[in-house]
Amino acid sequence: MPKKAEKEIVCIAQFTAKPGKETEFIEALHRLIGPTRKETGCIRYELN
Question: Does the reported pTM lie above 0.85?
């Protein structure tokens, strides 16, 4: 049985892009998905 994590961190965030910057903002968020999922201990990362 896997060892239970000592701490659990849950982060829920809501962002609003500046007018005219929506596409650039979404692309920047998508670039963060891969590196974030590779972080030690990352179990789940969703962008909705």
Answer: no
